[in-house]
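Office hours follow-up: a student asked to see two folded examples consecutively, so here they are.
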Amino acid sequence: MKISPSYSGLFDTKESLENIFKARKTCSDTGAKLIITPHAAYEYIAEITFGVYATIQQTVENLTIIAPAIYNKIYGSVTTDAERFETPFGDLRIEAADLEVNNKIFEAESALTCQLPVIKYLFPHVTVTPVIYGCEDYKKIAGIIKRGTTVIVSNLSRYVPERENIKLDEQTARMIERKQIQDLDMELADGAIGICAAIEFAKQNDLEFVRTGHTNSSQTNHDTSNVTGYGGWYLV
């Protein structure tokens, strides 16, 4: 079985997508075992996204993608038992997690699906283990992280004036980099549960977060009244 996710709103055509990606394909390859990356149309996040994915070893065999359910209300965490995701660059093989199966949710939850073309483009032969969570205990997500190289998907503050966005995102960045879980909630990041799980994992394994970049939506659309923040981190 193959899942054909909706990529509506992420890019106009395959050609436009290739132009965005070709301009940003980099490789620093720090051997990162975990990254935090945003989700949005690629014109907003490509710089941040490619900068943080570049820290993953090019020979990685599997990536576990952990993303919040943005459009569907769910409890716990779910995976898919499909064999492949369809992307503009070819099919991406799937290795299921040991979780409840919900195939339908993977067709439209863009926090996860917007990662798929990037992963296929940068790591053509990798398999992915997809996880979408709703109301969940971050410690359970931390248990999933232990299985291998992990992508935590989250935006930062959302739909606030730019001045407030800058203040909130710097607060969130400090909490991530100081590994402070307390008070890190969905007002600061829509993937707060996933980020808290990453912090828990970092504390357990004596790892540190390195920021690769930060931007916000106003840098692209010039709307300073309704701003969303985007940041990238990896663990060393």
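And the second, which I mentioned at the end of office hours:
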Amino acid sequence: MNELYTEINNRTNGKYADVRFPQIQFFSGGAVVTVVIEQNAIGSSDADRAEIKRLVNDVCAFHAPADIKFVYEEITRKSLRDKVAAFLGKFAFAASADISVDIDPARVILTMHKSMMKLAEESCLPRLKEYLKNNYIQPIAVVTEIIDYAEERRDVKQSAVVKKSYKVSDLAPIAGEIAAEEAISVANTEEISGEVTVCGVLTMLTDYVSKVKFGGGGNEYELFTLYDGEKTLVCRYYPKDGIVLSVHKKDIVNKPVCVKGYVKAGRFGESLLTADAIALCSADGLTVYPTPVPPEKYESVAPAPYEEYVQASLFQTEVELPDCLRGSFVVFDFETTGLSLEYDMPTEIGAVKITDGVITETFSTLIDPKRPIPTEVSAKTGITDEMVKGKPELYDVLPDLYKFTFGCSLVCHNVSFDFPFLLKHGNKSGWTFGDRKTYDTMGLAPRAIKGIEKLSLDKVLESLGLVNDNAHRALSDAAATAKAFIAMAKTVREI
């Protein structure tokens, strides 16, 4: 502990052992001493405050009375992480360390390259531990981990393949026929190409229409995702015999299902399954994540009001709002370190909330991906390693994003890319988004824009007379997608 703490407690026989004196700031003609106390504990009463102020002035013997700033201790992930990041920023070799924070129990996990660790152990780590003792009443552990990014990526790939299957029973057909007593897990499809029967939890059920075969009626196919823990598998189903999955949405979303079909590798290495038959089932050992209660308050990222003149001029000109736009939607977009769900991580999240056809709020932050951003990705997005350093990690952001999106349907442009990132990492952290309704503006565009040839966000916006002022940044892409979603929903009148 610092000298002020030691001297005050020597004089009071340890009375203020649970009070901290983390900072003295000197100004022209005086000083401000910060004192950290707990509510309704020693140090919080008027008499204690008066005694602490007298002791501080007596011990420090300032030429002018010190101003005492009393602060109640409140540990949040963001406040603790910000303090540690600011402290490590004083050490050039440690400034690039990855910082993770747990609250209950409170601890800081520092991940450094092995070449940094020896220097850190000799210099900044002992000082960091002392710094935390001086700033927080609650004990905070400091844990260190060594990392080599190249080794980590190999390890993740090797450990990702889980060899298991599920015993299935009580099959209730939705489309086609399945007769099976065992089905492979989602994770096990990574090593298979060909006919499979796979078991997982169904989510992301989304109507999709291909621009190539769109002929003016119906859906060409439906997208959905199966998840198994943190593993996901994107599936396509081409409606046949008049059976459309979305008719059964309430019965099958976030429920265990067996799917029979053909699996093959997708464009970016992840598997893609074309489904022939789907049945609800019971599966011994398959986890269905429950819907958690949202946090009471935002900790790392809070929403902000959305204001833009284009809404009044473009989106509020109709008297009648189509039923499909009534309610709440959140349009979101990730920027990531790459295109692989297996290896890559988000670097930015942008989201906007639509309420009854009007954009009302925004939610956005850069995210520390805890790995380098490739040069070619930075060139496209403008997001660099320096920009994300010290920003919240994804697992700090997810509780706030869950609160922001609670009770809302989710919308993306190319939902099969962004939603699996959200599903995988949400499941890992206990904030599951698997029960949400999802919509895809890429799939909606052929129904709303006659003759459209390309379905990129830029081309959809151009066809609608809309502009994205800052493409490939998450919030700008999300806001542009939201405008396109509103405009197209008003055109087709049902989504």
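Two things to take away from it. Residues 474-492 form the longest helix (19 residues). The two ends are 62 Å apart (CA to CA).
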